[in-house]
């Protein structure tokens, strides 16, 4: 995540690849470290994100590419591709929390997570890139779509 002030500079497009540092990184401590081995090795974290969207309450969904290693990863792969962050702007003091992990996952069966968006009613619209379908859910109306990952105290 980059700060709005850093992005206001007129030369930002040149600087983004040469000088700008991320003010927050999700799922690991920095952009130059790989968590516990391979990039896609942890089943409860989006280690290969391909899309993201924010609902009207600024909660974030990350769509993952779905590849994971470990016990039961192939059985669970289709159901652990959408990850929910209740407070993606979480801070500790005046600094953003680095390495923030997802609060929940959305067990929607996807072959390959694609574009994500929310409509005016906070329906999450996701495209499956393999099975040529679009799925729509609303986790505000049906909380069973949010399964806690155990990384945080959410939903408390």
What would a concise description of this structure say?
This protein is mainly beta. The protein has helices spanning 4-7, 12-15, 73-76; strands spanning 49-54, 60-64, 82-85, 91-92, 95-96, 104-106, 113-118, 124-128, 133-137, 147-148. It contains 3 helices and 10 strands, in the order ααββαββββββββ.
Distance between the termini: 26 Å
Mean pLDDT: 83
Low-confidence stretches: none
Query: Which class best fits the helix and strand makeup?
Result: mainly beta
Strand element count = 10
Count of helical regions: 3
Q: Could you tell me the strand content as a percent range?
A: 25-35%
Helix content class = under 10%
Radius of gyration: 16 Å
Summarize the main sheet: 5 strands, antiparallel
What does this structure look like?
This protein is mainly β. It has three helices and ten strands. It has helices at residues 4-7, 12-15, 73-76, and strands at residues 49-54, 60-64, 82-85, 91-92, 95-96, 104-106, 113-118, 124-128, 133-137, 147-148. The longest helix is centred in the first third of the chain and has 4 residues, at 4-7. The two termini are 26 Å apart. The relative contact order is 0.16. The mean pLDDT is 83.
């Amino acid at each position: 995540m980059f700060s709005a002030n850093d992005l206001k500079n007129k030369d930002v497009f040149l600087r983004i690849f040469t000088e700008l540092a991320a003010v927050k990184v999700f799922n690991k401590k920095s952009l130059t470290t790989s968590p516990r081995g391979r990039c896609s090795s942890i089943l409860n974290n989006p280690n290969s994100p391909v899309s993201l969207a924010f609902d009207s309450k600024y909660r974030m969904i990350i769509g993952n590419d779905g590849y994971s290693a470990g016990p039961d990863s192939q059985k669970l792969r289709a159901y652990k591709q959408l990850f929910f962050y209740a407070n993606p702007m979480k801070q500790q003091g005046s600094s953003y929390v680095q390495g923030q992990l997802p609060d929940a996952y959305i067990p929607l069966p996807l072959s390959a997570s694609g574009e994500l968006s929310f409509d005016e009613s906070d329906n999450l619209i996701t495209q499956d890139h393999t099975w040529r379908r679009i799925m729509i859910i609303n986790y505000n109306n049906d909380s069973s779509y949010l399964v806690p990952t155990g990384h945080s105290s959410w939903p408390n």
